[in-house]
Amino acid sequence: MKWIRHFGSKDQLVCATVDWQRPREEASREVEPGDLPGAVAVVVERYEQIGDANVRLLALEDRVPAVRYLLEQAREGHRQWVERVFARCLPTRRNAAYRQRVMAFYAATEVMVWKLLRRDFGLSRKQTEAVLLELVSGLVRRPTHDREEQP
User: Fold this and answer.
1) Separation between Cα atoms, residue 39 and residue 100, nearest integer Å
2) Dihedral angle computed from the Cα positions of residues 46, 122, 103 and 74, in that order, rounded to the nearest 10 degrees
3) In angstroms, rounded to a whole number, what is the distance separating the alpha carbons of residues 144 and 18?
4) Measured between alpha carbons, how far is 70 from 47 in angstroms, rounded to an integer?
5) What is the per-residue pLDDT across 23-65, written as a single tens digit (0 to 9) for each?
6) DSSP conformation class of 87
7) DSSP 8-state secondary structure symbol assigned to residue 116
8) Radius of gyration of the chain (CA)
């Protein structure tokens, strides 16, 4: 129980582990900005590895502070990934239109969409990638609102 003296509690140990692991997670999702097939392949690969665990953790989020922290960090990391990978498809001004477009790309690449397609509907990995690529491609084709028109 040496770790208790160092970290203080199990929750603090988990939080420290999350912080230590985050750069490794970010590195595992590296993709050239604007590479839509690459972005979809990378995110599906991660979900194939950790998606089921992420879905199970969602059930614990409201009961376990360390799990809440883990999921908050994961959401923030995914949002930052979306902003970097899809930067060319986002309005240049960080306003309501920007936030809405980020959330659209976020939703199109979210673990629960992967779960719906892979686990609930039984699509293959290749089929799941095709659906996600169609979602993100549709967002790319949809013009962004002019920066000056949005509040």
Assistant:
1) 19
2) -30
3) 35
4) 16
5) 666 666 789 999 999 999 999 999 999 999 999 999 999 998 8
6) G
7) I
8) 17
What single-letter DSSP state applies at residue 4? Answer: H
Short-list 83, 134, 88, 84, CA closest to 108: 134
Q: Residue 123 and residue 44: Cα distance in Å, rounded?
A: 12
Token pair belonging to 130? 């095709």
**Within a 10 A sphere around the Cβ of 77, how many other Cβ atoms?**
15
Give the helix/strand (H/E) hosting 148: none
Distance CA 146, CA 61 (A): 38
Cβ atoms 79, 28 nearer than 8 A: no
pTM greater than the 0.85 cutoff? no
The region of weakest confidence among 60-64, 117-121, 133-137 is: 60-64
Residues 98 and 91 sit within 8 Å (Cβ to Cβ): yes
Tokens found for residue 58: 């969602």
